[in-house]
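Quick one, tokens below. Sequence please?
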């Protein structure tokens, strides 16, 4: 394990740590300590806290990887002094004075939001929305994504906590060109604003599931940067 950075993953909405299941075994086999934060999407503060205690649990330095809303989480938690690199996967990356929703509002609304419903104070993805969320996966995998996803509180994207790690730490960004959940133009804007090393792939919102080999290479690049 000497010289191998740890990898910590942060999932987004309608997901849990299993969404990184095609990445974790390969990274473990290469000698990395790997953990996925399991957060409940109950509040931004509690979700960031979950990422932070996961960072505390692994040896440093840490490559912090966030998908979708997980990009907001790594932007906040990434100020942790043991985090050395940030990897964004089709992710949000709000600035200090932005909420997740304010960043989204700057770009056209995506089709997935025609397939949601609010019940019990949570925003649920309808089965009809999996095509816009993960439509380049086989049907069985789409059903698994829907069944295992955590469900956010209604006001999650309007919440704010301090921290903008990408302003001081090196970043990598995977833009999903066929994304129908986070606007690809938002992704390109975020990557450019970060000064991130950017990769564009023809993927739905879940490149770690539909193009795991590409995403693995991006994470490996960030890990090599820390190990150098």
């Amino acid at each position: 394990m000497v010289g191998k950075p740890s990898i910590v993953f942060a999932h987004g909405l309608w997901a849990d740590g299993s969404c990184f299941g095609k990445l974790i075994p390969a990274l473990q086999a290469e000698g990395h300590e790997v953990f996925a934060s399991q957060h409940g999407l109950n509040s931004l503060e509690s979700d960031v806290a979950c990422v932070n205690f996961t960072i505390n649990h692994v040896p440093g330095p840490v490559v912090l990887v966030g998908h979708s809303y997980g990009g907001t989480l790594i932007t906040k938690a990434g100020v942790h002094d043991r985090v050395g690199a940030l990897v964004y996967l089709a992710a949000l990356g709000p600035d200090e004075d932005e909420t997740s929703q304010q960043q989204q509002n700057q770009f056209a609304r995506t089709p997935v939001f025609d397939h949601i419903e609010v019940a019990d104070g949570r925003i649920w993805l309808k089965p009809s929305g999996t095509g816009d969320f993960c439509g380049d996966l086989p049907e069985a995998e789409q059903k698994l994504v829907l069944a295992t996803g955590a469900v956010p509180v209604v006001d999650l994207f309007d919440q704010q906590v301090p921290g903008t790690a990408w302003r001081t730490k090196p970043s990598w960004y995977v833009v999903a060109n066929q994304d129908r959940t986070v606007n690809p133009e938002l992704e390109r804007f975020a990557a450019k604003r970060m000064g991130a090393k950017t990769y564009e792939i023809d993927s739905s919102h879940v490149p770690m599931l539909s193009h795991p080999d590409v995403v693995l290479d991006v994470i490996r690049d960030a890990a090599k940067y820390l190990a150098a």
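The first strand starts at residue 6 and ends at 10. The radius of gyration is 16 Å.
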